[in-house]
Design goal:
The structure is a homotetramer. Helices cover 62% and strands 4% of the residues of chain A. The first copy, chain A, is mostly helical. In chain A, strand 1 and strand 2 form a beta hairpin. In chain A, helix 7 runs antiparallel to helix 9 and helix 9 runs antiparallel to helix 10. Chain A starts with 12 loop residues before the first helix and ends with a helix.
């Protein structure tokens, strides 16, 4: 009764299309067969055995539900799977099946196999996000909008810069993930290839190569640094996706309306309110990412595992690891759609720049007045003028001029009204925005 | 591709027997039909409508997979479900369907319905744990074993007292859970029963009664205290189960062997080592409970939800809430088996009491010597004798007598050897163990 | 080098005024002296001993820094404290000092003593929040504003109802906290009052009474349910405070401006932008509450402690428990100020209701049209009119009338323009808002 | 009243020796002065200004407590610090103070400065751990002990291999940390160097160089990937330290006694039990690391920060970041002592290998019998013999020979008793242990 309906829509859609548990059984089988092949190539088992195993088992239909049930007695999926595989083999091959392996070798390696295409897809989605973001950055390198700090209007920026920050977050996470290697697991009962001497390491290395996995220094049954590195890199990307979704949901608020999620048939409709278009993709990203953080918390609390094999710590990793990755893939599917189809309302951005009557320009104004008044009086005047503009609903430049005249009649003429107008024009106060976009693109494409 | 096989064995088994998503659809339907009945009883919709709705929909086969897919556009399960239900109704009834409700009303209430029998089962399992624990406490009220602090042998206790602590943990959690009421959700689009005036509250109260749920003060769309209380009570019980499993896995270590998990066909066997019996139930409890903590972390980080409806926070709650409960039920199934069938090896307990040559009795000895030597010298003598006994592998009483003679010849005869023997007998140094067991039983049965 | 400056401003201010570590030493001393008094009253130690101990130690100046250093060798604060206390006693009293106690007895009980006044203050602050909230609810029972779901404008509510939700969150948390009893800890080395027989329980009960703490069923050295209950209740209140701060920070956004944090000298000013008033109190609440969730995570992951005493799990609890409470107190100090002085801008609320040209009223309009057009056509018409109003910047009622005429000329006259006007007036569409406020007040005061 | 005594002993000791808040003030000052110097070198402020600032402020005594108090109104430490600094400057320099900076620039950069020497010390401690571990690996490359999976005796390994796993955990974490660059923060009010054009980026780059910090692509006010990477690398090392402490606390259990923490004056003594030596260093490591996980949870949940500046998310990072690093440093101080002085009891290791009567060798025996009996019968015989040996307390080889004779008389003579003896000798069944140690050392030194 885990209600799948409540979580599968948040997850990787291609992965969900595939048959579920069958994939894991296939991955375990792939590990066992590659193990036999490696052992055959090293002369450990008779020539031809591995091929005959593959022939016997590749078309064998494993009873997935029996394996699932078997976990409850054995404690992990490999135990019932290995039994079922052995039974399905011709008698003379059984002794070469699962040879020198322990169940954790099979489960860990199978998980790594399962995750390999998922990580490739993450990289692919992140590539699309990057491309889409660069497009937005180029298109909006000069689109002025208000920057907001502590969710209050602060000073002007460009929309291009905002997108640059999203893109940098994703790309840092992508590079972190890309540096990770998913290692094979093979150590036997207590991690030292009992009964196989130095050949154990050869088998481990060969198995890695055959499966396309990385070669670890040693078996890592209770050295879970690779899992920690993977889970925390996934979590970092969750943070990047969540940042995008958070910004979109804030900017898409009815009163702001600066961006909108791409329209789509039925997308974001309300069950009761016809006028509403909910930022559903942002909600799904944020929901998925919060859960990824929970999965990461399980894994970081389970990194230390006792002696040669965990007692619950390892078991606790499985679902958080797989679901964490699938939830991230789901979140990135949504993020890709968002970035590729984001509706940008530059008119609303302009409108919101004017909401304070121009008072967001108080800082440049204060800076402009400082040579005349000193920093404190300049700051005070700029602030008081902002307050007056807000109360009187008049343009900031006008309030400023009036207040300047009242308080500092001696400066009459020293500062021209068009100078004040310029000082209060957001489009003239964008700092390094344009250079930042260029620098970010260079780095993203580097 | 969420690999169910990796997690379902850890979860409530009866719940898993049931069809999965179908149950949630049924629960949503139950909420909608009860809503119509409540509205009919209040004269809001025509007499007979609710009955006709029930007739039309109770046998209707909802397309679960379409609903699952629909979540991705609507953002929650109620949106596609409500559409599908409306289409399945005769035309004249459609206007009375989902009347005054919002999708969160349906999803939250359905979740509460779904959890109601699970909480009942938790209570039932906890009752069985309590009964089994009381049995163990009575049987072992005088079974002496060593108490261990910081995992070092310290002083004697009884096994009965140890079980009492397990039982108190479970019972505190059970009472905490039993005090919770699962509330109905009904507030309409923005939680104020838009369009229904004060009658909205009447509908909410009536709906609660009809569904057997608790009446909240107000709708709680973004007041998630009830969810926090539920998730943290579930987590507290996870802590209690984990404590049992932690103690069992420590006491069942090969070198200690004081308890063993109940034997069972194939239970705990290793895929490679025939002699091993792994404490698989403890591993499954510990694995499940670690994940429950992760689920709790998601929920406590999502308690604060914005304005009138969450944007990802609510979505993040669903699976952690349901899976948290199912994982706890699974853990308690295992705990029940453990407590009902635990193998207690009182001989090993006696053997381990002797492991230090009696040095665990240094504290009572020091206490016995204090009137003669003062606390500091007494403590030092007791400690040094313990060290000597350990190095010489001789009984503690003997090392003590010798050292006493060396250092304090003036006390010769003041302390008889049989006094020292008595001071070093663990069974005479059990403190309030027996009274504690009696007190705990009285409270557990209270 | 823990940078206190970065965290103390977020914490309970009265608690911070007090001397820090000194308070903990005082609390440990209070426990030891009450223990001696209890033992004296039970005839365990000679009459007069406890009084002489108090006389000797109450004015003794403990070397706090030596105790701090001593933790690193003993592993907890009681070990060096007990040593220091013993040395400061007359020789004949030393044997009665710390009698039958273990260091965890002292540390746990001292922590409970330390937290007792803090919990009282939390209750006091929550009482002030409740009073202030009720005032706001009464004042604004009819203040119309827009309800927002998924941060999009949805339908009208009142500000009174919004405050009611804040108040219910706080009050549920307050009641949860108020039901908790902080228990004394007293069990001796392995929790069974070694060497004291049944009298151990009498001492425990008497000590609890003397210290004003609750009597536990048994010592709870590794039964951490009381700590879990306390930490999760604290965390629930953090969620309630965070919800208030989240709503305030959203409503106070420049473009919304519906509420403002109370003004205060220098409060919320920016180091660079004179016009800005940052919602600093909300930021401090949200910062503190996020950290409380982290502290709660530590505690829920440490609930299961091994055998008779933890090995790191207990040690991990100390700071998260104390800092969690102090951070909550700090957050509630800010929440109290917010609620007592919140600036409510009902004019801005009215202005924002009009932002969509009235389209937030599409749902009541659809409902009004349903008898004429059926639900689907009614919903479509209401939605299309909303879109037209938004594009043409005309009032929603006007767009509606036009579209109705175009699509359904047969209804001409069936629905009067003033009916449409009424259907689009937010103040006439507040549902049970007023009744909800009354119901909430009754419950809050109940 | 945050009780420092309860947490400072767990933290970096050299860092604690330093004055606390003063260091942070110094770091903020260093950032401001380097900013002025950079600006002077770019011709932004008059030649000589920066030097005069330094002269005026380096000896100025900042009122730390006023700054601490000021955080509560401004929301961060830079606001009151900047004010205090400005006041302390000659009038004509004030306009060049904090020029173009925002408070987050100062706080973030100061935090990075503060952490730089700490990370260097972490690296240093990890170097010492590596050296000590390599020593242990070399010394114990052939020290046979039992490997334990799910905390049950499984098969032989060497102590050298166990240490190799600890060392690999630390070294993976060390390399992860070493790859991180702590970036300068400099973006001005909204991150785009408002008012400074492209020169803003030049100032940022120059400031980084002057402070010895890394150059970020762009300011990272709400792109918290660098903080996530740092916090999760710290957490990974916590996992490695915790693994060491977990293993040590398990192996040091009274019944196992295979290792002991280094003895030390008063180290690990109990307040009540003279015979006990508590594994206090392990407890402190485990306590610290659990808290690090809590700090990491705060940071990973705060990675997504809204728009141009966080509203509580940023504030929540400060203490978890600093304390996380200090706690790790404390844990590594303990780990270094543990690894440099660990007492290894190889005799106890040998003794424990014999605890099961040799039954841990059932797997090699089964493997030896397989060619004669097939895998299933061989496994069954080996397991049944283990059970018989356990029950009869006879050597495993003897039980095996007897059972073999009973069940398979046809094999009489096929397997010699000395073959069985050899098959049951742990020292002959160490797999790749020795090769693993060599491989690990090569990688560690690589």
């Amino acid at each position: 009764m885990p209600v799948d309906m409540l979580q599968t829509p948040f997850m990787s859609q291609p992965a969900l299309m595939a048959s579920r548990d069958e994939d894991f059984v296939k991955a375990m089988l792939a590990v066992e067969l590659a193990l036999a092949e490696t052992q055959e190539s090293l002369g450990i088992i008779p020539s031809g055995s591995a091929g005959r195993m593959r022939a016997a088992l590749e078309s064998h239909v494993f009873d997935v539900s029996a394996i699932t049930t078997g976990i409850a007695t054995g404690g992990n999926a490999a135990i019932p799977f290995v039994k079922a595989g052995r039974v399905a083999l011709p008698n003379d091959l059984r002794r070469y099946w699962h040879l020198g392996a322990t169940s954790q070798d099979i489960v860990d390696s199978a998980l790594m196999l399962l995750l390999t295409p998922r990580l490739a897809r993450l990289d692919d989605l992140l590539g699309r996000c990057r491309t889409a973001a660069i497009g937005l950055m180029e298109d909006h390198a000069e689109t002025v909008m208000v920057g907001r700090t502590l969710m209050q209007q602060a000073l002007p920026i460009t929309f291009g810069v905002k997108v640059a920050h999203w893109a940098l977050g994703f790309e840092q996470g992508r590079r972190r993930l890309a540096e990770l290697a998913l290692p094979v697991q093979f150590g036997g009962a207590v991690g030292v290839h009992s009964g196989w001497g130095e050949q154990g390491l050869e088998v481990m290395d060969g198995l890695a190569e055959r499966l396309g996995l990385a070669v670890p220094v040693l078996p890592w049954h209770t050295d879970r640094q690779p899992i920690h590195a993977l889970a925390s890199a996934v979590d970092a990307l969750a943070g990047a996706a969540e940042k995008l979704a958070l910004d979109v949901s804030l900017l898409t608020q009815t009163e702001l309306g600066e961006v909108a999620e791409p329209a789509g048939e039925g997308m974001g409709e309300s069950s009761s309110m016809p006028h509403k278009r909910n930022p559903v993709r942002s909600a799904m990203i944020r929901g998925a990412c919060r859960r990824i953080h929970g999965h990461a918390a399980v894994i970081i609390n389970a990194t230390a595992q006792p002696l040669e094999r965990g007692l619950g710590e390892w078991h606790a990793e499985w679902t958080p690891l797989v679901d964490g990755v699938l939830l991230l893939e789901g979140a990135l599917e949504q993020a890709t759609v968002l970035l590729e189809g984001l509706e940008v309302n530059s008119e609303a951005m302009r409108r919101n720049l004017a909401v304070t009557g121009g008072a967001i320009m108080a800082e440049p104004v204060a800076r402009r007045l400082t040579p005349h008044l000193g920093p404190d009086a300049a700051k005070a005047l700029a602030a008081d003028a902002a307050e007056r503009a807000r109360q009187a609903s008049c343009p900031y430049a006008q309030a400023l001029e009036a207040l300047l005249g009242e308080r500092h009649p001696e400066l009459a003429g020293a500062i021209a009204r068009d100078e004040l107008d310029a000082a209060t024009d957001p489009a003239l106060y964008l700092g390094s925005s344009k250079a930042q976009v260029a620098r970010a693109i260079a780095w993203l494409e580097g």
